[in-house]
Amino acid sequence: MAPSIRLSPAARSLFDEPLAIAVQGLGPRQQVTLRTSLRDETRELFQASARYQAGDDGELDLARCPALPGGSFCGLEPMGLLWALQPQKPFWRLVKRDVQSPFLLQLEVFEGHGERHGRLLAQAQHERAFLRDGVRRIPVREGRIRATLFLPPGDGPFPGIIDLYGAGGGLPEYRACLLANHSFAVLALAFYSYEDLPKGMKEFHLEYFEEAVNYMLHHTQVKGPGIGLLGHSKGGDLCVSMASFLKGITATALINGSVANVGAVLRYKDITIPPLGINPKRIKVSKSGIADIIDVLNSPLEGPDQQSFIPLEKAECYFLFIVGQDDHNWKSEFFAVEGSKRLQAHGKEKPEIVCYPGAGHYIEPPFFPMCAASMHLLFGKPVMWGGEPKAHCEAQIDAWQQIQAFFRKHLTGEPSGTSSKL
Question: Domain BAAT/Acyl-CoA thioester hydrolase C-terminal spans what residues (predicted)?
Answer without folding.
Answer: 205-412
